[in-house]
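Form P-L/3: holo structure prediction, ligand adenosine-5'-triphosphate.
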Amino acid sequence: MPEPRLLDPAIAMAAVQARLDARGLNLPERGPVDDGPSPDQPGHPEYHRKARAEFALARWTTAVPRRYTNARIVAHPAAAAWAQQVATQPAEARSLLLTGPTGTGKTHEAWAALHAIAEAGPARYELIATTAADMYGRLRPGGSEAGTETSLGRLTRIPLLLLDDLGSAKASEWVEEITYRLINERYNACKPTVFTSNYPTEAPRDPKTGTIIGPGLDVILGDRIVSRLTEMTDVIVLAGRDRRRAA
Ligand SMILES: Nc1ncnc2c1ncn2[C@@H]1O[C@H](COP(=O)(O)OP(=O)(O)OP(=O)(O)O)[C@@H](O)[C@H]1O
Ligand SMILES: [Mg+2]
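OUTPUT (holo model):
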């Protein structure tokens, strides 16, 4: 029996191609086959990012007060950059302090930034939002969450916290103590927090006499809190008219 001839695959392909060429036909180009999942299929990173974003946006929607449900555009580049960092590298993210006079849009900007974080599809989106006054009201002896250890613990441990209107509640030793414990714990754990306040961190002083001529968080809440706030936050000052009156 004659030995079967072993055909070189390259020669065989060239022969096939020559016949096809003679008939004016063409073999499709060969290339890598992309049989991985598409962006709308499980297994594709974009599919999972979208699923995380959907979960986070649902959380945002349940937390946001009705007035701020349309807060979308993050007006200040520093706030937008902060939101991206919280979404992608929460362990490295700093905190944000939005200050400025009444009605300049601090709370709106805070909710817009929190929305941007949710939209980016972060790995975790666990958020508590409260005004400082409400927080003191709940934690105060006789308040709805008066067993302070657990409730304050929840606020210190939550990955993302919005503390609105810092410094607006009536100051007292107890308010200072609770605020100090909360901020100190979050400062130590490097957990991102958005603060808003009507007051600058340092009280303005008369340049000639050095006398304090207006309120500041240092006077209202004490130096130890403001020292930590200064290190842990990027400060954004919102200026302009009271949007409520303008409307
Ligand atoms: N960028 C914006 N686009 C549309 N509306 C806005 C914007 N920023 C703020 N507003 C609206 O202006 C009003 C005042 O905004 P906001 O409550 O955020 O001010 P604030 O600085 O937090 O005030 P306060 O110091 O009294 O807490 C709200 O009705 C808010 O919805
Ligand atoms: Mg506000």
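COMMENT: The chain has ten helices and five strands.
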